[in-house]
Amino acid sequence: MVRAQVDGADEFSRRIVLNIERFRDNPEQTNRTKKVVLTNRDLAKAAGLSENYFYIRMRYEKPFNVNDITALAKALGVTPDDLTAVPTEDPILRLDGPELARRLRQLASAPVQGGDEFRAAALAKSLEDRGIAFTAERWSSLTEETAPVRIAESLMVAIAEFFGVDPLYLVNFHHVEVTERTEAELALESALHKAGAKSVSARSLGEMSPSALREVAKSIKDITKRN
Question: Which of 154, 37, 148 is nearest to 87 (CA)?
């Protein structure tokens, strides 16, 4: 189950967004006078950016320019170099717990690579082989999370790669295009699997839109029910 990543989000843009989120949520790593977590609204206002302009770039739909980076760095209490730097340590993400749980359950509901049913033990073994400590119990806890979560970016990326999805699906919940395409592909692959397909991949249908993928999935489900 391997899916295409959405165009337009190059490594430099991702790095800036992740650094913005890191310094926004970790005031102790900045020179801000008030050591409080900033909201996106407060950050955009402090940087002199409209909320719409700011959110479009945080979703990777357009890049921040040099002036934006300078203004955001000042608002965050860091330097422009801090926002463009490659992190020297594993960034810690601050994610919405219930939404993370929903996305993980979505991933688990579809067949994994090779068409097999998902098993938490297999995920844990895969991550262990990569030197990442993880257990089936930890997976269960994350899929039932009800509070905000602070979690290593590397863990989210590794889980996404295990399922063959774009890492942005678990790293940046604001990226609407990645979310819609990923969940449409998951729905189609689940429908194909239930219909008896052993090895399934939504990518084999080409560059179909998320809505078209969902229509195909619905048609397959309807045919399966009638049979």
Answer: 154
